[in-house]
Amino acid sequence: MTEFSHIPVLRDEAVALLNARDEGIYLDGTFGGGGYARAILDAARCTLWAIDRDPDAIARGAALAAAYPGRLHLVEGRISKILQLLGAAGVHELHGAVFDLGVSSYQIDDPARGFSFRVDGPLDMRMGKNGISAAMLVNTVSESELADILFAFGEEKASRRIAKSIVDRRREKKFETTADLAGVIRSVVRPDKSGIDPATRSFQALRIAVNEELADIQAALAQAAGMLAPGGRLVVVSFHSLEDRIVKRFFAHASGRGVGASRHDPSRLLEVEKPKFKLITGSPVSAGAAEVQKNPRARSAKLRAMERMAA
Ligand SMILES: C[S@@+](CC[C@H](N)C(=O)[O-])C[C@H]1O[C@@H](n2cnc3c(N)ncnc32)[C@H](O)[C@@H]1O
Question: Residue 188 Cα, ligand 1 centroid: separation in angstroms?
Fold first, then answer.
């Protein structure tokens, strides 16, 4: 079996902002390779609940759980079900929660998981190894729905042209592999000056759609924030503008800085009068040049943190 590894992004910054305390109960909502989890467990004599929807991540984490007896609890599931997953274990309050969103290198670098347009593999992209695969999606949805997915989740300007060529091609032969799909996209979209592979945005879009990522993030933020004890912090690392927009808006709203509503907009009257959270990061924290050089995934990372205030 090929060995993969995941270099955590902004780990030290995220763990410092989480501010874990001895005897506290924390959540790592995106366990992945356990890089954040280990650092949290080392930072304080706390208990950590760690969720991941990928059964491989949970299985790999068993060794880490054994190294911290009774302190690390691994839970397989989606972050949109935090209340249910932790509630079933009798956990109803948290002293902090962290999310390091997106895919891990274990997932993206393993051709068998079907996320990569660089190396050929089955067109899968399911983090949780269940539900509708990317192949099922591109082979069945309507052309207009496909174009909408590429535009909304990939911000792909050529969405209509790409969707048309995918639908034309699948009439002859269904898509089965990542290289096959990437080839069709590259035949429609020419590379621009940025040097970014023309398939990048479409692959991001399909991954987000297959895993219903944005809806999960929205639900996860609300549930984790609702479980925080006074002084508890919510720390989130995002990797592209669609994720960061959700986090930014959620934080703005929770801290009483509702985005968008003008002074004369009656919807302001409905806003929570006394904010329950304060922002810890005004502008998001980014990775420094040294980290980006070591790990290109860090380039687009943005970290935001907020803290639950006393009632
Ligand atoms: C960027 S990696 C986390 C890496 C981790 N912080 C570390 O240090 O190794 C993201 C992980 O979150 C998981 N994940 C992403 N979205 C999820 C969701 N909606 N529900 C549960 N797990 C999710 C992925 O399966 C992946 O393993």
Answer: 32
Structure tokens given for 14: 């995220």
Q: How far apart are alpha carbons 136 and 110 in whole angstroms? A: 20
pTM for the predicted model, two decimal places:
0.94
Q: Which of 204, 161, 206 is nearest to 184 (CA)?
A: 161
**Distance from the CA of 30 to the center of ligand 1, in angstroms?**
4
- Residue 184: closest CA among 164, 201, 204: 164
Gap from CA of 255 to ligand 1 centroid (Å): 26
pLDDT per residue as tens digits for the range 145-193: 999 999 999 999 999 999 999 999 999 999 999 999 999 999 999 988 8
- CB of 239 within 6 A of ligand 1: the answer is no
Q: Which residue lies with its CA nearest to atom 3 of ligand 1?
A: 32
The reply to whether ligand 1 has any atom less than 6 angstroms from the CB of 53 is: yes
pLDDT digits (tens, 9 = 90+) for 197-232: 999 999 999 999 999 999 999 999 999 999 999 999
Beta bridge partners of 304: 236
